């Protein structure tokens, strides 16, 4: 048992004096005390040894973490940028990521502001990779989030400023995407890793993350007053210029081989989501055209490698955005007559060599809702390209547009702009197709679909839609029929200049310019020049007082003297003796019987007013909920229409629609003399345009779907309207008098109280006239 307990160490303390108490605890130890391990923090102040002997990424990581001085940092950056090393900082890997994170989080805040310009560019070269770009943006976003949550410190703001300045130098150049893609391919032989790393880079620069982070950083620095001496980076924070920069990077990738073209397709497809597709397509198209012109190879096709790997959906977005961009060029004042030729030269390399783009173009033009957003010159250019490169697609386009143009649903509900666009596309494609294969146009014009479409348009009540049907029918008849058998409507609206412009579309034949000619024309008009927007700075001049510039807060304005100087103005009041006793005051007006109700909540303050316009009259006649609105509308309708007949074209524009509504109008409120009021309104509409409405009402009476009472109404209106045109305007049994309208119009009739006395219908007046005639006869 004694072996179980053995003394390890004993410590004895001698008492120095009797007053000193003994310690309560005694130190007992069985192991020697170890020194703490040496770390990067403890060796922070020690110089880095053996920089020249660094051979691996682990050695580089240790050297960067050891907080090197300026000379050691230059040697480390030289090792990272040396192409003859056994390692590459641009390759994706854990050690590379740790080195880059240390550079961003430790080296940049410490050394960036003190480095010279060449040394800063060396550091930027080390960070120009997928991992470096992500690290800079991630660190910047972390700092911005921390500043939003807590009070900003000077160190945090300074670090944000350094990273913002670094990002301005890192994300520059029209070949940035190509450099990162090429460096990634050279550093990593595994294609799967390269593909995943490239997707991360595309998400970073093409999803709005980069431009949003830079914009947040600028806002914070401006709020803190840290950007007073540094110019901002407008293109990184302006969506249109940023999209143009992405377009130039996509073109740089397309010119580098098959694998970079696939990477460019991914970048382009993601960049369309930024919302600036027009600027993106413009930059891509112009840059590719300039590259093709510099190549001096007539057989070279811009964007050929890109379109071969681009998905069909992205091809459609590229084509549609390009057409919208070219539409803005042709609508500007500087456009010329040969604008369609220039636009065709721009679009031909994008459409002609590829079947998928030709089909996409045919689908866009056949959809009137989409093609109406394109200008007329752009549609001319597209049809010229299809006529040359794909006649089959042009014939398919002609058939699709003709089918939709004659569809009854499209005629009744499509806006006028879409119907005009469909008519123009149909005429342009028919003229171009007739020059290629006349028999195809002949068969299409003789088809039942075209005949039924023209018939549907001629039977429609919409004047513009019916006019477009007559124009298209006449134009196609010019192409396929002989001189004596051509369609001719012979109406006045078919003799205008607009009709001639539409009919001339079948004879338009546009040529296609070369890429060099199209680019020269765009540059000459200023549309192909690269625009750089300058940031506007507002400077406020300090006030100058007595020849010296003042500082500090603005001084209050000098008060303006408002007191009257000199003699004061005295107001004189008249005495009571000067009042004129001959002037009598007006009596109080009678109270309104409608306001006599004791309960104020029951008084109707929203009284119906008589209609002033024909469209308001139509709305009130359709109202079957409000009694007062309907009553006042039907009572004032005849006088309103007669007054508006010779005043503008308001009645003529709504005449047929209003006549149809009156024929079907019912009386939901048992209105007095409703049938007579409706008849008089229909007569007033008939007399507004007899040449048009009389034949139309006759057809409605015999071929329309109406009851016997409605047909009698129409025939009565025709008969009484004819009597009024013949001069029988006096009131008689066939045309009795109407109740007085609530709206009084100027007339030659006497007031009611005098009209009752002097009216010829009074028997006493008739007896007086008979007595005077007998007396006159006796005297003779």
UniProtKB/TrEMBL annotation:
It comes from the Eukaryota. GO terms for biological process: 'de novo' cotranslational protein folding. GO terms for molecular function: Hsp90 protein binding; telomeric DNA binding. InterPro entries: TEL2_C_sf, TEL2_Regulation, Telomere_length_regulation_dom. GO terms for cellular component: cytosol. Residues 573-582 have a biased composition (Acidic residues). Residues 611-721 form the Telomere length regulation protein conserved domain. Transmembrane segments: none annotated. Pfam families: Telomere_reg-2. Residues 12-31, 546-565, 572-600 are annotated as: Disordered. Belongs to the TEL2 family. This is Telomere length regulation protein conserved domain-containing protein. It comes from Dothistroma septosporum (strain NZE10 / CBS 128990) (Red band needle blight fungus).
